[in-house]
Amino acid sequence: MPDIALFLSTAVWGFSFTVLKLVLGLQVSEVLFVFLRFLVASLLLYPLCRRRLRSLGDDGVKAGILLGVLIFAGFITQSIGITYTTASKSAFVTGLSTGFVPIFLLLHRGKMPEPPIILALVFAIAGMYMLTGPAGGGFNLGDLLTLACAIVFGAQIYVMGIATRKFDTLALTWVELSATTFIAALFLPMQNIRFEFSLEPVGAVLFMGVIATALALSIQTWAQKKVSAVRAGLIYAAEPVFAYIFASALLGERFNLVQKAGGAVIIVAILAGELLPTLLRTKRNAVAG
Question: 138 in the Ramachandran plot: left (φ > 0), alpha (ψ -120 to 50) or beta?
Answer without folding.
Answer: left
